[in-house]
Amino acid sequence: MKLTSTQRTQVVNELIHNSRYPLESSCIELLKVIYPEIIDSKTLGHFEKEGVDAYTYNVELEEYLIAFQFKGFEVMQFGESQKKQCIKSINSFAKTDKEFQEYYLISNLPISNKDLRKEIESEIADKIVPKTKKAQLLDVNQFVKLLLELYNKIVFEKIESYNHKVINLYQKTVDQKFYYENIPFKYSLTKSSNNPKTYLFDKSFKGLTKQINYSKWHFIISEFGFGKTSLVQNLISEFKTSGIECIYIPVSSLSSEGLAGTTKISKEIAELIFEMEMDFNNRLSSKLFFSLIKKALTSTKKMVLIFDGLDEHNFSYKLTGLKHIFSSLMDITAPIFITMRKEFWEERQEDIKLTLKKPDKNISIIELTEWFDNNIMEFLELYQKTEAKSEKLEWFKNVVKEKNYKNHFGDIPKRPLFLKMLLKDLKEDNSATNNISILYHNYFIEKLKIDITGYSGETSRPLNLDGGIVTQANSIIKLLRTISSKMIIVENDEVTLKEFINEKDISYIIESTQINDILEILMHSVLMPFGSKDINGFRLKFAHKSYQEYFIAMFIYDEIFVKSNSDLNENNSYPKTVTDFLKSILVSKKINSSELKNKSNWKILRV
User: Fold this and answer.
1) What is residue 455's predicted lDDT score, i.e. its pLDDT?
2) pLDDT average, residue stretch 331-354
């Protein structure tokens, strides 16, 4: 990527206006990024007679590598006097008995006079070249050009290093040893397909390489646990192979201030990539790196920005937060991939679309969807290749083949997050796999941990509850038990379950907690919006019916065995799926038959 002439001129002008010592400091600061081991000669008193202002040295090999002489002239035009001073410096360096591999004489002025330049270069050729492998005169324009070439290379190296670090942390956290590509998804709202990685790559790559109209905004949505992060991370290698760089940014790693403008977001991305705080006001190196990052994002045709987890940043929940975020991204010309939870998209999609120019033509939306048996089997085949042989895994494979997994595990294997948890428990022969209520409880806790802390352990979705993870989990579980109980319908002693409940009908329940609003519940539970928001708020349903049944079973257990509520009608006939959960809860709580029969309404359990 190249800077504009204006951006280059700004750097050149700053160097031109530096005289001797300020020039030395500025050049050493700029070169230190490229040569971290560079030594300022005056701090050690080395090479004073030879006029070497800075140098690099290989400690292990005890070799001098590169010598730098900086000429900071106070005049504004390079003339005869400046030429003589350069030649004097060359003669001083020629007297050194140290052997350097490279030598650079750097002027803070442009040298446009060809005759003056020729005389200096002739002196270098006669007196310096025989002593070094490379010797060169660089005026300010040539110096800045060389810096930009080297800085540009460093920027891409840092981007790759940063991506690698963040992705490795995620893969280590989730124990991801492979990526399964053939996952189901929807595009254009209703069309179904498999392998979203290939779909997204093809859709954006054609636009980048053939200069045809392409979607700038790519939204990847799903309920929790479908692998949005894994998908976009695996896109990076696909683009890299085709010569397109990606900058992968977990949105939660940015500050709220950094999301308030293209300049600010470019600066924060620069600091993330270089893993250091940059002084963009006083340090030329910081200014150069920032300019190169911003240039990459706002003008290159060989760059992609990945914004992972829009819903994981507190700023996204502010009244005008999304408007600021998308305004900040508006000047970025690179395709932008943005992931978020489906429930967040359902509530805020109109706000997002209002901030975009011509949204219908510029956006692409895909939704990762429920897995089928063949997806589970293909994933299991890959999983077994990375693990030692296990009778439990073979047993599970047969369960899936015979379409019996729902009898054992409900809907748990339908998405990769829970599937990986289940396979890990099976591999370790965890006794919890024998009790479905314990499985549902454990996996809900694991999900909540991810919701709150993210995969790096440093991120956070807003959750206004006191206490640690366990305390917060218990509060959420209690809330979901209560909500599920409001979805019970009884007619002639026959119990059925509502498919959904209106947000308005449970607002009083939420208001009795510390939680701010319904979105906090949606982001930290297994409730999700169903359809569009209306005067009654969202229509809400459980992401899986089995979780609804589980929480109703928890509610009944709590009423009978904790609160000793005798008002529950023992003649009510609950669905078998609910009573199955109740039975497994009794086993997990070690409730024996005599304890059970001491309860006046124990027959409700049909055991």
Assistant:
1) 57
2) 86
Instruction: Collect all residues with Cβ–Cβ distance below 8 Å to 568 and sequence separation of at least 6.
Output: 556, 559, 560, 601, 604
pLDDT band at residue 115, thresholds of 50, 70 and 90?
very high
DSSP 339: E
Which of 354-363, 414-423, 434-443 shows the lowest per-residue confidence on average (mean pLDDT)?
354-363
- Is residue 89 within 8 A of residue 105, CB to CB? The reply is yes
Q: Is the pLDDT of residue 459 over 60?
A: no
Contact by Cβ (8 Å): 333, 207: no
Task: Give the β-pairing of 184-187 and 191-194.
Answer: antiparallel
Tell me the CA distances in angstroms from 604 to 494, 558, 566, 568, 580, one per residue in order: 12, 13, 11, 8, 12
The model's pLDDT over 215-263, given as tens digits with 9 standing for 90+, comes to 688 999 998 889 999 999 999 989 988 888 899 998 888 888 878 778 8
DSSP code string of 186-241:
EETTTEEEE-HHHHHHHHHHHHHHH-----SEEEEEESTTS-HHHHHHHHHHHHHH
Q: Which residue has the higher pLDDT, 54 or 311?
A: 54
CA dist 456 and 169 (Å) reads 7
pLDDT score of 532 more than 70: no
Distance CA 110, CA 142 (A): 8
The position carrying tokens 């280590």 is 172
Burial class (CB in 10 A: 0-12, 13-18, 19+), 491: exposed
How far is the C-alpha of 77 from the C-alpha of 110, rounded, in Å?
Answer: 8
**What's residue 603's pLDDT?**
62
Q: Say how far apart CA 531 and CA 539 lie, in whole Å.
A: 7
Rounded Cα gap, residues 151 and 142, in angstroms: 14
Rounded to two decimals, what is the model's pTM? 0.79
Which stretch, 248-257, 343-352, 520-529, 549-558, has highest mean pLDDT? 549-558
Q: Which of 12, 74, 19, 63 is nearest to 37 (CA)?
A: 63
CA–CA gap between residue 458 and residue 462 (Å, rounded): 13
In sequence order, which ranges of 411-468 are alpha helices (DSSP H)? Answer: 416-427, 436-453
Widest pairwise Cα distance in the chain: 109
